From TrEMBL:
Organism of this sequence: Oribacterium parvum ACB1
Superkingdom of source: Bacteria
Pfam families: ABC_tran
Domain ABC transporter: 4-234
Record protein name field: ABC transporter domain-containing protein
Keywords tagged on the record: ATP-binding, Nucleotide-binding, Transport
PROSITE patterns to which the protein is assigned, alphabetical: ABC_TRANSPORTER_1 (PS00211), ABC_TRANSPORTER_2 (PS50893)
Keyword Protease (UniProt): no
Entry's family note: Belongs to the ABC transporter superfamily.
Length: 236
């Protein structure tokens, strides 16, 4: 059974449909990239997958042992995040909040997960640093470590390299590749960086207020939707 299956899913705001006829599945170990123009419905779909937005039609089904609270989330950077007055350790530790039981205290296993995630993402040396004092690339690595604390099964990633310099972009993409290939994590990523993601993703979903393409990255490049989006990116 697939990790996530969407069956004719649609979303609406105040009775107005913004996304319709979405039907695809995500398999364990997949690396899915969601592409499309601004306003195509990518953010709405992510909210639906994260349980933050209820589908107005169709169904989203979790399977193969995946639970709705076992999804790590790396959001797009915002100005409010940049000014967050907490230590990097506290930020990463907050990824374990959904695992706390009746007693609101972090356990030894939670602290071990935090330490392991920070070591894996190479941010252990930043544990006492204030999050708002970090560079953009460092912030994204810390937030990725937080997402890894929340789940070792599936990561949902929203425009992860937006605003980063070329070196930081390359490093973050390589970290996501490593999580997918070494840890077998399933990744669902929204990105405008089409040329880069088609080299890394296994599967592409193209949205334009509905589902225009779903298939392999190789097939996407030869499709009319892939050719169109790549051409627009080159002319941007």
């Amino acid at each position: 059974m697939s990790y996530i299956s969407l069956n004719n899913v649609g979303f609406s705001y105040e009775g107005k449909t913004v996304l319709s006829d979405i039907h695809f599945s995500v398999e364990k170990g997949d690396y899915l990239c969601i592409v499309g123009e601004n306003g195509a419905g990518k953010s709405t779909l992510l909210k639906g997958l994260l349980g933050l937005k209820k589908a107005s039609e169709g169904s989203i089904v979790f399977g193969d042992g995946l639970k709705a609270n076992e999804i790590g989330y790396l959001p797009q950077q915002t100005e409010s995040q940049k000014d967050f007055p907490a230590s990097c350790y506290e930020v990463v530790e907050s990824g374990r909040l959904n695992k706390l039981s009746f007693f609101p205290f972090y356990r030894k296993e939670d602290k071990k997960r935090v330490e392991d995630a920070m070591e894996y993402l190479k941010v252990t040396d930043l544990k006492k640093s204030c999050f708002r004092d970090l560079s953009g690339g460092q912030r994204q690595r810390v937030l990725l470590a937080r997402a890894l604390c929340a789940s070792e099964k599936l990561l949902v990633v929203d425009e992860p390299v937006a605003g980063l310099d070329p070196l930081a972009q390359k490093e973050l993409y390589e970290m996501l590749d490593k999580l997918n290939k070494e840890k077998g994590m399933t990744i669902i990523m929204v990105s405008h960086d089409v040329k880069e993601v088609v080299q890394r993703a296994k599967t592409i979903l193209h949205l334009d207020r509905t589902q225009r393409f779903f298939g392999s990255a190789e097939d996407y490049l030869s499709s009319k939707w892939g050719k169109l989006l790549v051409k627009e990116e080159e002319n941007a």
